[in-house]
Design a protein that fits this description.
Blueprint lengths: L1 H19 L2 E4 L6 E4 L10 E3 L1 H26 L20
Antiparallel strand pairs: 1-2, 1-3
Helix pairs in contact: 1-2
Length: about 100
């Protein structure tokens, strides 16, 4: 359960980081990507946030986090096995 909480926190941090540093695109006729920069940066290059790419990023992060959360949840429900190391060479003890 602890691993799931850590995983969920990492997913939320990834969503926040991509929200603060979103992809931008130029407003010119050619369009194209203008890279990534902070959302509070001044718009001095004639660009805007590329919402399509940002939503795709968020969906991918959410899907990967959700899938990993399910896997970690299933792994935590597996029965624990006691694998105690056996003393000696692994052969049964000799009778005397």
């Amino acid at each position: 359960m602890r691993a799931q909480k850590i995983l969920l926190a990492c997913g939320l941090v990834a969503l926040a980081v991509t929200g603060v540093f979103p992809p931008w695109q130029y407003l010119s006729q050619l369009g194209g990507g203008a890279g990534y920069r902070m959302i509070f940066a001044a718009d001095d290059q004639g660009s805007r946030i590329d919402t399509t790419r940002l939503l795709i990023e968020w969906v991918c992060i959410a899907a990967a986090t959700g899938a990993a959360w399910v896997v970690f949840g299933l792994c935590s429900k597996l029965p624990k096995t006691d694998k105690k190391p056996k003393s000696g060479s692994g052969e049964p003890p000799e009778e005397s």
